[in-house]
Write a structure and sequence with these properties.
about 400 residues, alpha/beta, Aminopeptidase, 2 domains, four-stranded mixed beta sheet, about 25% helix, globular
Length: about 400
């Protein structure tokens, strides 16, 4: 059976949408308590458990963590897709056995349970845990560092989501991105960085089959406050995963699939013959640019401007009653010829009316844009289809 066919029929259906909290995963942790070793390695600032899952018994120790930023849940879904795949007994059994005998994979499915519950990037104290690697001021940071020191991993996986604003010069969006973080201010290509780069190249090779031209690389400016940079500086290869946007998949159900494939490639479960990779090719992966928006309306005539302009709209993610609502707002107004939209419309020089009807300014919430002379022509309308 091909892996994409297996995935389509067997991914973890108990986790859907963007809002994933500890309450979402407790039933799955209970389901797997006899299959995997699950421990509580620490507590959050608000006293929630921070569970750690152990998979395999091999000599290669890998430590991963998801939802360090509480509102970045795509990789958490992919982790449970991976757990379900490893636990099944019908397909890819020799490959799974090879993984279990070669690796011991420890993973925090939700490192920041308070932020996950609140659907915030930061923890309950408003601290970005990915800027707390040196101070270790928060209990969640201390938990991760304690596991790192105890387990002494040979590889770390820092699992995140990226916003829908990233793309490439040629116009394609960045659906999945990676980074081998810098180990110092000079961005020295250390041995640890080379190892991380080779793993990234392997995952890139796999993902090119599914989303060609949509895999990116993050800027590697050094920041010692970041966890990945700190671990890389300590000589432990560390990979940043960034699960991004795919077309109109605002609940990131397709992107979770691609992260799942990336994990299979990394752990040598698929594409096992792709090992002799030159780390220098990592720099051939295109670097992300902030050149995408959720929606662009081209060639608009505004009252206070003589030239036609483009208007970009972006969505804010708002938690309401455990549902994520996508609220549109004006992000940019101008020429924007090098900006791309997942959806684009052309006003062809027409004047527009907006709801609310006020002067368009960057940051303003908006629900509708229509043609001033032909009100049946609706260029943009807020819809509820993105609700999970």
């Amino acid at each position: 059976m091909k892996i994409d066919r297996w995935y389509g029929n067997h991914f973890e259906t108990h986790l859907r949408g963007r809002y994933i909290s500890m309450q979402s995963i407790y039933p799955l942790l209970d389901l797997y308590k006899r299959t995997y070793e699950i421990s509580v390695e620490g507590l959050s600032e608000m006293g929630q458990d921070i569970p750690l899952i152990k998979i395999g018994d091999g000599d290669k120790i890998v430590l991963g963590w998801s939802q360090m930023h509480g509102n970045e849940s795509t990789t958490t879904k992919a982790i449970f897709d991976f757990l379900k795949f490893i636990n099944q007994k019908q397909f890819f059994q020799s490959e799974i056995e090879g993984f279990l005998n070669s690796y011991t994979f420890y993973v925090f499915p939700i490192l920041n349970p308070d932020g996950a519950e609140l659907y915030t990037r930061e923890n309950a104290n408003g601290v970005d845990l990915n800027r707390d690697a040196q101070d270790l001021s928060q209990m969640e940071s201390q938990c991760l560092r304690g596991a790192f020191d105890k387990l002494q991993p040979s590889l770390c996986l820092n699992l995140h989501d990226q916003r829908s604003i990233y793309g490439f010069k040629g116009g394609k969006p960045a659906t999945v991105s990676f980074l081998s973080p810098a180990a110092d201010k000079n961005r020295t290509v250390t041995d640890a960085r080379k190892i991380a780069m080779q793993f990234i190249l392997k995952m890139n090779h796999t993902l090119q089959k599914y989303i060609p031209g949509q895999i990116g690389r993050y800027d590697d400016s050094f920041n010692e406050a970041c966890v990945g940079d700190t671990f890389q500086n300590m000589g432990v290869p560390t990979i940043l995963f960034e699960a991004g946007h795919y077309d109109q998949d605002y609940n990131r159900e397709k992107t979770r699939e691609y992260i799942f494939y990336a994990l299979l490639a990394l752990f040598n479960i698929t594409d096992r013959d792709i090992d002799s990779l030159n780390y220098k090719d990592y720099f051939g992966i295109p670097e992300n640019k902030k050149n995408y928006n959720d929606f662009i309306l081209r060639n608009v005539k505004l009252e206070n401007r003589q030239e036609v302009v483009s208007i970009t709209i972006q969505y804010r993610e708002i938690l309401r009653n455990e549902i994520i609502v996508f609220e549109p707002f004006i992000d940019k107004i101008g020429n924007l010829e090098n900006q791309y939209g997942y959806v684009e419309e052309n006003a062809k020089g027409s004047e527009i009316l907006t709801n609310p009807q006020e002067n368009l300014t960057v940051g303003t919430n908006i629900s509708e844009i229509i043609d001033k002379k032909d009100k049946s022509m609706i260029y943009f309308q807020k819809i509820n289809s993105f609700l999970q």
